[in-house]
Amino acid sequence: MFSSKIKGSFLLVVSIILLLAGNRATAAEIVKITSIQHVYMDKEFIGSVTDETEIEKLVSEKVSEAESEYPEYTFDEEAQMTLVRENVFNAEIDEKQTMEELEDEFTVKATAFEIIIDNQVVSYVPTKKDAKEVLKKINLLYMDEEELAEYESNQEAGVLEQPGSLKEKGSRILSIEYTVPVTWKETTVEPDKLMTVNEAISLIEKGKKEEVTYEASGEEELEMVADRYDMKLEQLIKLNPGLEEGNRIGEGQKVQVMEIMPYVDVVVEREVLKETVIPFERKVIRDKNLQKGESVVEQEGREGVQSFTYKVTETNGEKITETIVKKEITEHKQKQVIRKGTKIIPSEGSGTFAWPADGGYISSKQGHRWGKLHKGIDIARPTSRTIKATDHGVVEFAGNSGGYGNKVTINHNNGYKTNYAHLESINIEAGQKIEKGMKIGSMGSTGNSTGIHLHFEVYKNGVLANPLDYISQ
Ligand SMILES: [Zn+2]
Q1: Last residue of some domain: 72, 107, 142?
Q2: How many Å lie between the centroid of ligand 1 and the Cα of residue 416?
Q3: 312 and 400: one domain?
Q4: Does 350 map to a domain?
Q5: Domain, as residue range, for 235
Q6: Ligand 1 centroid vs 425 CA: distance in angstroms?
Q7: 456 CA distance to ligand 1 centroid (A)?
Q8: DSSP code of 138?
């Protein structure tokens, strides 16, 4: 069960050669050879035995105990101690004492993986998978999982980045480096020294205490220095023989303190993409064909995008350097073009009237008709149904008005008012300023009407006038 080393046979051969060469002893003495086992634990010699059965039993029992106490760990019986076989003459060994020694010294060790940072064992975890997880989680203290996974898969594929990924995520890792070597190795350890991955990580995250020199920048009490480094005063005094409680240190005086330092600095180089918006300009074109106060967007404005690529170096998540490596405009801006009206419409009429329809003819004049006064003129059979304002003015009425049907009244503010009746639809509203010739509605046959036509009336200072004194075909 226990492997004996080749050393035993080698010793035997050497012994026989020595005997044959120089020793005058008899043949009877030569054959008195005993095979023994030297017992080593952690390379330390415990004692020797002639029969290893007792040891095997002891180890088996202890391992069984450990297995039931720590069912989650692995215990390898053969790895618990080393037996080295040797053939000796006239063996004088105290087996009882060896066994007693073993009973005292023997502690079962579990299979472990030690996490080694800067050649120093920081913790033990039970499996290789855990060891790898610890190393990964050291990285994850300073980056997120997705980012690390992408970096690792890119490394494997031998590419810098997946197309478009930098733009999408805004950042990618270029390199991850440790300031000291970080590695793991298989070993064995007392089971109570094993940690979970999270325990190991929080230990590493916490950092280690390291002795450093502190130089006072002014007079200080020792207690303040101890407080600053989260130390007890006694600890500080112990580190600095010659200092006593109640002492003060002066400017420039150096004392040894324990400072918490990270086990390892993780240096991450990243490429970071940042985008900034470039505002667009506005251009205003003054348009004399457009009424003042009105504006039309001729071209929509669009913001541009400028992207900056930075190279950022971080140590333990803290930004150390940042340099711009690339600057480019990824989207061009577009100017906004607005037409602004400058035309001023007078609210007062010009005094001359324009034909209120698009072509057509006078189908009925002003006068008495069937015993009733026909107050205006009728215009029918136009080219289009557009009804236009005869002069500048302000809409006084726009809506339905009994026998007039849909009617518009414009006050020209110069003593004249005009009525437009039987409209199919009205395009303007009361209070609106109207320019001469502007469309106010469509010709129709609403109200008391026998066909599509415009009924047009003119009033001068409140008195009905004859439209034909003002307009002609
Ligand atoms: Zn009429």
Answers
A1: 107
A2: 19
A3: no
A4: no
A5: 208-261
A6: 17
A7: 7
A8: H
CA 334 to chain centre: 30
Task: Using a pLDDT cut of 70, give the percent of the chain over it.
Answer: 93
Dist. CA 446 → ligand 1 center (Å): 12
User: What is the 401 CA–ligand 1 centroid distance (Å)?
Assistant: 14
pLDDT band at 32 (very low <50, low <70, confident <90, very high): low
Same domain, 83 and 125: no
CA of 434 to the centre of ligand 1 (A): 23
> 286 and 381: one domain?
no
Using the 3D structure, point to which of 216, 235, 261 is the last residue of a domain: 261
Cα 200 from Cα 124, distance rounded (Å): 8
pLDDT for the residue 13: 44
Q: Are residues 78 and 176 both part of a single domain?
A: no
Encoded tokens for 49: 């035995």
* 192-250 residue pLDDT tens: 999 999 999 999 988 888 899 999 888 888 888 899 898 999 999 999 988 888 888 88
Q: Reduced to 3 states, what is the DSSP secondary structure of residue 371?
A: coil
d(CA 186, CA 324): 44
What is the per-residue pLDDT across 431-464, written as a single tens digit (0 to 9) for each? 999 999 999 999 999 999 989 999 999 999 999 9
Residue by residue, DSSP assigns 372-436 as EEE-SEEEES-SEEEEE-SSSEEEEEEEE-GGG-EEEEEE-SSSEEEEEEEESEE---TT-EE-T
Same domain, 20 and 35: yes
The pLDDT value recorded for residue 29 is 53
Contact 197, 115 (CB under 8 A): no
Domain count, the chain: 5
Ligand 1 centre distance from Cα of residue 111 (Å): 113
375 Cα–ligand 1 center, Å: 7
Query: How far, in Å, CA of 208 to CA of 121, rounded?
Result: 12
What are the tokens at 381?
């059979």
278 and 232 assigned to the same domain: no
- Ligand 1 center to residue 235 CA distance, Å? 115
